[in-house]
Amino acid sequence: MFDFERDRDLLQVMGEATREESTCIAQRLLAVAELYTRHEGALADMEWCLVDYCAATAADVSAVQNISHARAVGQVQFACALAYRLPAVAKVFVRGTIDFRMVSTIINRTDNVDDELMPKLDEAIARHCEKWMKLSRPKLQDRVDQWVAKFDPAGVRVPPKVEQNRYFDVDAAAPGMAFASGHLRAADGAALDARLEALAATVCEHDPRSHNQRRADAAGALGRQEAALVCLCGRQDCTAAQGDAQHTAATAVIHVLAEQGTLEGSSDTPGYLRGLGILPAESVREVAKTARLKPLTIPTGAAPDPGYRPTARTREFLGWRDLTCRWPGCDKPVEKCDVDHTVPYPNGPTHPSNTKHYCRIHHLVKTFCGWNDRQLPDGTIVLTSPTGYTCTTEPHGAAMFPTLATPTGELDLPPTAHEPDAPAERLAMMPRRKQTRAQDRRDRINAERRERTELIAEQQRQHQAWLAANYKPPPF
């Protein structure tokens, strides 16, 4: 691979590659930030839309980089912080003399600093950060926190409270909180997961807890053999108190897809456990001993379903064919996705060759942000962005089980229109946010700054108390 006679030449290649890597990452992030700025200027007022400027930019980023929507959103926010809150650090990053680890630490540890103080802090850190490259992560955090404390003591980050980040597959504990972890068989884990999901859904929509917090509380309810969670909304018209049958947690079902040969023992092709992935053939046969077996029909040459909503048979096939949202890089399971008509109904029929799954965010992106898609009879999607960038995705289920990629029939469909812009009258129909991302960030920062201020005050009180108890004035 290398024709260098001297080892020092290899070391030179390493050093140059490291600097070029940092430069490329910096350029990519600054390009993301610039794209965000252009979306702000070109699109109508989307700040209060569920698909806001950040989500619209993330749709482009996830498609071109083939990453999930959540990672793309994080990258957009990271890029904007680098470009607009830390421009001096960004210049150092572009030179390649600091790496991504350094930049991510700086962005994270300066996130709570007041905007008016950031320019001076940015310049100070940019002058010194190249000297910190050899520091370990804890020491690097200490250096950044030291500079933050000099400019804005209340902006020093506060460690998160475990109690506020409750989730069932727990990995950390604190006094008063339990540690629950373990390695389970995939089928047992899926059954437990489904049970927790069912319990978490027994409260009304006004319950103040997050989804993860409801799952954590569902573990206690499950241990007490309770059929439902107690809703904490405090409303007299709470629908959970009515015992709605569709929200009871009486049963938990898991779904496994496998070939007939695997069930019969003539093949060791693994199956697929929805939500947890590949299931070895031996495990498939073990689960099948007590399971209800149901053949999956491939709707080849089938007539379109009547009406807008697909039949249960079509939904079942689409669910196993797609498994996840069909947007590039998105892994949202079909249970949390919408069935989207590629050519909008009624011009496009409700048929497997014209329907697939998009998660709610990507469904809205396609509908309101000028994206265009085309679907092939085997389920392949050709997606085109408003900028003209084109990418192709194949169904995840059909990629693992080729039988599911059997063409379901050619349709005589009109071409879908490509809309480069999102007119204001169309955006008015988009679901709205209760708070903008900027307001969410402001509230989190204000709460953490208050907590840091209280910690500083408590430290000062303790210091004064120690002085009062131990300080003895010198005799004269």
TrEMBL record:
InterPro entries: DUF222, HNH_nuc. Residues 17-322 form the DUF222 domain. Residues 437-455 have a biased composition (Basic and acidic residues). It holds the Pfam family DUF222. Residues 429-463 are annotated as: Disordered. This is DUF222 domain-containing protein. It comes from Mycolicibacterium rhodesiae (strain NBB3) (Mycobacterium rhodesiae).
